[in-house]
Amino acid sequence: MEPVRQVSGRMAPLDRADVDTDQIIPKQFLKRIERTGYGPFLFYDWRAEGDFVLDRPEYQGASVLLAGANFGCGSSREHAPWALRDAGFKAIIAPSFADIFRGNCFKTGLLPVTLPDGQVRHLIDLVSEEPTAAITVDLEAQEVRGDGFAYRFEIDQFARDCLLNGLDEIALVERHASDIDGYESRRVAWLPVVR
Amino acid sequence: MAKTLARKLWDTHIVRSAEGEPDLLYVDLHLIHEVTSPQAFEGLRLSGRRVRRPDLTVATMDHNVPTRGGVRAADELSRKQMEVLAENCKQEGIPLYQIGSSRQGIVHVIGPELGLTQPGLLIVCGDSHTSTHGAFGALAFGIGTSEVELVLATQCLPQKLGGNFAVTVDGELPIGVTAKDVVLGVIARTGTSGGQGHLVEYRGSTIRGLSMEGRMTICNMSIEWGAKAGMVAPDDTTFAYLEGRPHAPKGAAWEAALDDWRSLPTDDGAIFDHEMTIDARRLEPHVTWGTNPGQVVPVTGRVPSPRSETDERALRYMDLKPGVAVSDIAIDRVFIGSCTNARLEDLRAAALVIEGHKVHPKVRAMVVPGSTSVKRAAENEGLDLIFKAAGFEWRNAGCSMCLGMNPDILAPGERCASTSNRNFEGRQGSGGRTHLMSPPMAAAAAITGHLVDVREML
User: Fold this and answer.
1) What domains can you pick out in chain A, each with its CATH number?
2) Which of residues 156 through 185 in chain A touch B, CB cutoff 8 A?
């Protein structure tokens, strides 16, 4: 995976709570066998309603998505972060994320940043008034910066290291092959096998 | 030190533990299906890796299989996903229960049926409802496709220990109130994210008194309130369910397994980070009114006034006005199915309500058994005849209209009484409107043509 150190760019506000992965990428688009090509179907049904905020001209080219609490709840589909990435987003800032979605973001190289409600609200207000406002999400410094503000964020340190160094998680686990072999040799005999 | 069930399960699966890193856990059983696995196998091929433990990996086709007409009824892309799964399983030596197999079914229904889902195991699957298997006293949770690839390659998963959450449900469930109402009642209290990241143990006399089917229904929906996993301590009900199943231990191994399983329940004095208690005697049948499972009320209630923009949007999407009595909401469709509520006990409970009645002339109703085995067992008892005589469609097994990846979908604007787990916008079909409820409640709605308190019909 390509290392991710910081994301700089413009923001787009999706001011809704509990955005589920069925909205991010509806099920009819889960039938691909590739990891790419999902961008055009991001928020497909919401876009079809017309005047969807992410389709407004002023938010085209944004790389940071702002969203409400519990973003990415529901299905485990990794297609959700793939679609967001394919559509040009590199970071998402929200007051909270659903667990599986957050994990999937890390694997996709998409930065899930948790900030308190008030700070997310400030960013949404800012970009609503000033769509060209620039922002930097600095993973190394664990800081979201813009004109006149700097917000510190907490993030899982192991996931951060993986992103900063572009580490392949499978290769990391494979380094512990002897531990895995050892564990397997200790498993009791009656545990189920599938054949 | 006194330990919780969850903590015991966690500790016995640690392959490696190091300061500042997530624990590396060993996966005992990896379930895969056609939708979230193709990219994982592709990743393995690109990096020249193989599946480490095909003997601990099992596959089924469920998410996009047609429920009538066989594989030929599937659209081209769905067929392709099924073909790719079959090819991947063949290359790697992974057993596959494909369409037409006598054991095919929803991944979370067939694992327990086969006796593969056992107490003490760590079970993962690229599907958020993997928490279902926790009903057996297993640690079970959903993972993404990259993690599927990681598990295929290494049989391990790096994980950070989540907090412990005890949900204690005591008392006898009133007539007409089911396990589904217990978990909807939990979500009514917690909202959609109240359990975020936690390992939940459901306990108390009500849970002890439930069948394995009921426990699975409750654990299944743990993810709908944000929990990482839901589980129930194994007991005699668990052991009785498992004994004699194809992959359950036998003979001396069965005795050894029992000894181990009996050591799993939470020790007296173990501390939970959060606790919640529910009085089962006061529970009523629940129905969702909105577009997430937390937007739920008792069937005797009314559509609430909106308290947020999310609520307002949900009311618009559902075409409902605040103050409307839930029992005045007319429906177009009924779906009895899904990994939440399509096991034999669920079909029996629905059939009991249906018997001797007809589906309302304005309603189209279908039953999709959770597995081919459930379908066969139901037919052996004549349940299919009861459903068909009432006017229900009797289909083949699959996820079907729970998520609408196959041809079974709602038309825009259609309103459905559904026994599934998610009422998200468009979940059952673009523009479709979903009300979640128990199988008896869905059966009652099929007869009356509107949401109704099943207790009036018992």
Assistant:
1) 6-167 (3.20.19.10)
2) 156-158, 169-170, 172-174, 176, 179-180, 182-184
Rounded to a whole number, what is the distance in Å from the CA of A161 to chain B's nearest CA?
10
Read off the tokens for B322: 């605040």
Q: How far is B382 from chain A (nearest CA, A)?
A: 31
What's the farthest any 2 CA atoms get from each other in chain B?
64
Closest by CA position to B340, among listed B204, B231, B218, B435: B218
What tens digit of pLDDT does each residue of B250-290 get? Answer: 999 999 999 999 999 999 999 999 999 999 999 999 999 99
Q: What counts of helices (H) and strands (E) characterise chain A?
A: 8, 7
pLDDT digits (tens, 9 = 90+) for B389-422: 999 999 999 999 999 999 999 999 999 999 999 9
**What values do phi and psi take at B146, rounded to 5?**
-65, -35
> Residue B145 is encoded by which pair of tokens?
């496709």
- Work out the minimum CA distance from B446 to partner chain A, whole angstroms: 26
Interchain contact, A75 vs B309, CB within 8 Å: no
Looking at the DSSP bridge assignments, the partners of residue A91 are A64, A111
The DSSP bridge partners found for residue B378 are: none
Q: With an 8 Å Cβ cutoff, are B21 and A158 in contact?
A: yes
Taking alpha carbons only, the member of B204, B192, B433 closest to residue B332 is: B433
A186 near B CB under 8 A: no
Judge whether A104 is closer than 8 Å to chain B, CB to CB.
yes
Q: What angle do CA B49, B54, B57 make, to 5 degrees?
A: 115
Task: Report the C-alpha gap between B444 and B455 in whole angstroms.
Answer: 9
| Residue B258 near residue B285 (C-beta atoms within 8 A) | no
Residue type, B211: S
* Interface contact A37, partner B, CB < 8 A: no
